[in-house]
Amino acid sequence: MDIDALRRDTPGTAHRLHLNNAGAALLSRQTLDAVTAHLELEATIGGYEAARQEQHRIDATYTTLARLIGGHPDEIALFDNSTHAWNAAFYALTFKPGDRILTGRAEYGSNVLAYLQVARRTGAEIVVVPDDPSGQLDTAALADLIDERTRLVGVSHVPTSGGLINPAAEIGRITRAAGVPFLLDATQSVGQFPVDVEAIGCDMLSATGRKFLRGPRGTGFLWVRTEVLEHLDPNVIEIHSATWDGGRGFTWQPGARRFETWETAYAGVLGLDAAVRQALDLGLDRIGERAVALGAYLRDRLDDLPGVTTHDLGEHRCAIVTAKVDGLSATEVAAGLARQRINVTTTDPDHTQFDTEHRGVHPLVRLSPHYYNTEAELDRTVEVMADLARSAR
């Protein structure tokens, strides 16, 4: 990769040291231009008219996203965020008393709340699969826990609260063998490193545009395997997702678009398409190699600092790095970094409830570099963290 060229193409790098890519990455110039060009078109000729004029490019977004994850265009549904995409898949399943939902300790907070709501409504049971000694989901325990009552296995590929990469492909092998639906929350993994739905073997996958894909906020998508569609009953229906039959019935739209709604921010969709095309052009293998290496570099350097500890779990770790400074709260550390124009964020105990119950380490400082960051930027961040640690002693 030509990192200098990529940074010139990323206006935000001139103003900030951005290590909050797990929150929202910096847009490239191509993505920014795609969004603003469509907004200009809407302002010039009208929103409906602009969508009609650019329909071929809008339709191409489904193909672009399918290429990204190894699916088919008719298996993609567009959403305004990953949580809505995940909810569309989850609430299309039916549960009854005694059914079991298997998940991991790293599950995202909104997903956990959905599990709790469905358990309260239906009498289904939530089973949290334990971790193995490395801190990732224990696949042997998962295999033992799956039985005839298991209705769903739902797992976050990468948690919002750390650098863990869960063994998604092994989970997929187990769920396929058992005939149990597998819903993968890939919010933090898609765009950070290669994610292939066929290699993983999941049945449904949700993702966002704004994080490691470097797309605009307000974009996301759902992938649903064609063979699974007949077993799902979308929880929301409207004029875009189904067709009235002229009497007292309707027919779902073919493919995953039955999960969509009519109103869409097409400027964001075209921005997402531009961001994904850039990722595909760069190569997800190369993106993943550099992003993971930057995460390891930062993690190792922070671990060498007196008074600083990192808290990332798993046999394999990604570009998300979580840390604590002795004597300072996570908020104070994040504020200290912000004063030096370094963007980070903090983990929230409510966003990973099962992990919070188990480890009790949150909140932590979350630093998340991406391929356009430099080693010099990470060195600068380590210097500031070292100064903060010294000041707290």
TrEMBL record:
InterPro entries: Aminotrans_V_dom, Aminotrans_V_PyrdxlP_BS, PyrdxlP-dep_Trfase, PyrdxlP-dep_Trfase_major, PyrdxlP-dep_Trfase_small
Top-rank lineage group of the source organism: Bacteria
Database matches in Pfam families: Aminotran_5
Keywords per UniProt: Aminotransferase, Pyridoxal phosphate, Transferase
Swiss-Prot/TrEMBL cofactor(s): pyridoxal 5'-phosphate
Gene Ontology terms for molecular function: transaminase activity
Every Aminotransferase class V domain range: 19-380
UniProt xrefs under Gene3D superfamilies: Aspartate Aminotransferase, domain 1, Type I PLP-dependent aspartate aminotransferase-like (Major domain)
Family: Belongs to the class-V pyridoxal-phosphate-dependent aminotransferase family.
Listed name of the protein: Aminotransferase class V-fold PLP-dependent enzyme
Source species: Streptomyces akebiae
Organismal lineage: Bacteria, Bacillati, Actinomycetota, Actinomycetes, Kitasatosporales
